[in-house]
Amino acid sequence: MAGVEEAAMQSDNDNHEPMFNLPRVILAFILLSVGIYIGRTWYLGGDGAATFLLTFCFVPIRYQYLASGMGFPGGWPAGVWSPLTYVFLSPSPSSLVFDLLWLMAFGTAVARRFGALRFILFSAVAAIIGAGAFWLLAKDAQSVLLGPNFVIAALLGAAIRFIYAAGLGGIMNMGGDAWRQPALGIVEMWSDVRVLQLFGFIFAANTLFAILYASSGLDGRVLVHNVLGYVVGILLFSLFDPRSSAGDAPAR
């Protein structure tokens, strides 16, 4: 059965990557995110855009309003879908571009390895965990969570389990064939210099991002939230990975 599933994954990867060499699930994520951003910024008025964001973003105060019987955009259904839908709501053009570039670099490798369904399930679980972590880290219940940062961090964590063989060069060509490599165990990761180099690159990039955007109100909680995302991705990886263990030879 494993061989059949792997063949199906390979077929999906081979037959549906003509545009930008991206798996369909990654391309769909990009088109949906960009389409939503254009729609809410260009076609909705100020009040309409605000209502749209409050309906689909994750904001802890939503549950206080709903529990007290007060109205909140989207009602109780939004309380169910908002821990997932916030990932498609980038707050600015720069963050949208930055997030989608990271998604293409690391999410592509994970999508190739997992296949579309496992990729979607992995991302959904990571999104829900990210919403919960945000709630715990938030200064107050009115803090708003927008964008796929936590999910992308989780995808980075998952990718590092197997993309180590490609090194930093693998980032630039969206992982190449690194998705075929056997995964390292959690303990093994910390003794592999290539993994440590990747972690160094990732944390340096996140630190630079936090410094550049410090003037816009970001603080240490953003870095902590992202670090938790990496940890979640590393831990969740084994639950979704359909391929062989690190002790087996890589697929050809």
The largest β sheet comes out as: none
**Poorly predicted regions:** 1-5, 7-19, 245-252
User: Can you tell me the CATH class?
Assistant: Mainly Alpha
Distance between the termini: 18 Å
Radius of gyration: 19 Å
What is the residue-mean pLDDT, rounded to a whole number? 79
CATH superfamily: Rhomboid-like
Structural class: mainly alpha
CATH third-level topology: Rhomboid-like fold
Overall shape: globular
Task: Give the total of beta strands.
Answer: 0
Please identify, by name, the CATH architecture.
Up-down Bundle
Oligomer: single chain
Number of helices: 12
Order of helices and strands: HHHHHHHHHHHH
Q: Please, how many domains? A: 1
Percent in strands: under 5%
Helix content: 55-70%
Give a short synopsis of this structure:
With 252 residues, the protein is mostly helical. It contains 12 helices and no strands. The N terminus and C terminus are likely disordered.
Structural account:
The chain is an all-alpha fold and 252 residues long. It has one domain (2-240): Rhomboid-like (Rhomboid-like fold), CATH 1.20.1540.10. It has twelve helices and no strands. The chain is globular.
